[in-house]
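cache lookup: miss for this entity combination. No prior model stored, computing from scratch. Input as submitted by user K.M.:
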Amino acid sequence: DIQMTQSPSSLSADVGDRITISCRAGQNIGRHLNWYQLKPGKAPKLLIYAASNLQTGVSSRFSAGGSGTYFTLTISNLQPEDLAIYYCHQSYSPPPCTFGQGTKVEI
Amino acid sequence: QVQLLESGPGLVKPSQTLSLTCTVSSGSIPSDGFFCSWIRLHPDKGLEWIGDVSYNGSTYYNPSLESRATMSVDASKNQFSLRLRSATGADTAVYYCARLHDVLNAFDYWGQGSLVTVSS
């Protein structure tokens, strides 16, 4: 299985801040990397697919990049509704596809 | 817009079978390219992919669960199902069904999740 390692595991920031979450893959996965937002009691949301493509309907405050083994998710102008846990997901080598351990964002 | 809804018992006794159904609304399940994935969120451990099942019944399992898991589809009811035999406390999790978009290779629609607790 391809190991995915996210950092930090949690962070606290203020409204208006810019934050960056990183995700490292255990091997080269090209650009087969997606990002999701999870909130309690709500359906998870796809934010980014193929490393840097913003999913339709997702705020442009979210951006992402990277390739190979290192990827980042950046949230600009942090808002209270961004309180969530964010997961990276590699879809290069299914099965099994694998997820990072998550980054909890506190406002 | 695709909507998915998980349903099933919230409490399962150890050694019994955990069973969940995912109902897809907003149109019929397309006859090709539609994969329903089952994913679970462990308390304090993150997300784990369980497997994919297609409209035509093709299945792909996580090797770590393959010996206990069975996924199936009932296209006439727009439903996908998951059964996990010999449940233990380690199977306590929120279970999600999601659509695997075959071009994006990402899960673009998710259900809200169904909490299943394995306990006597």
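stored under new cache key. The two ends of chain A are 33 Å apart (CA to CA).
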